[in-house]
Write a structure and sequence with these properties.
The radius of gyration is 19 Å and the shape is elongated. By secondary structure, the chain is mainly alpha-helical. The relative contact order is 0.10. Helices cover 76% and strands 0% of the residues. Keywords: DNA-binding, Transcription, Transcription regulation. This is TetR family transcriptional regulator. One of its GO terms (molecular function) is DNA binding. InterPro entries: Homeodomain-like_sf, HTH_TetR, Tet_transcr_reg_TetR-rel_C_sf.
Length: 192
Amino acid sequence: MDMVRASNRLTADDWADAALVALEAGGLAAVAVEPLARDLGATKGSFYWHFKNREALIEAAVLRWERRGTEEVIAAIEDARLDDPVERLRRLFEKVIEHGATHRIETALAASADHPTVAAVLARVGRRRIEYVTALFEAAGFAPAPARHRAVISVSMYYGMTHLAATAAEALPRTREERKALVAAALESLLA
């Protein structure tokens, strides 16, 4: 992992990104200051310039993941300004299936769910995702309770995709056409 920055002026975000790479590759135990400093071509002093301790780095990393994996995804769907809530659902499903098929960070975080900071962020992310998808199903015409049920199923499907990506990637659709067919089948069952 050659992450040395040309300027050698690392930011807190650089450290958080490196922590996420380490977390994805080796779990929470892999988020250690000395190996990260070596990978970044930095000193431990650089780390302590930005963070009080390892726990502060873990918090920064999972907050960065939360922003990228939830808030930025939701913002991208909203920024598309699609009037049809079913089309917004379709776009969301396509985006998260693509994400689930290519990223293992969610699985690594789930394996660290006993860590207080990770647990709090995972819980908040789960709630936020369910709330957003519930709102989309409500906009598609479902009453609040059935909309929430469909949202819970939808988010559970995504978590299942991330698990499959980590454990049985060959079971996942490989082409764009296969992913579109999977999205169509999922939406057909959820919109019935």
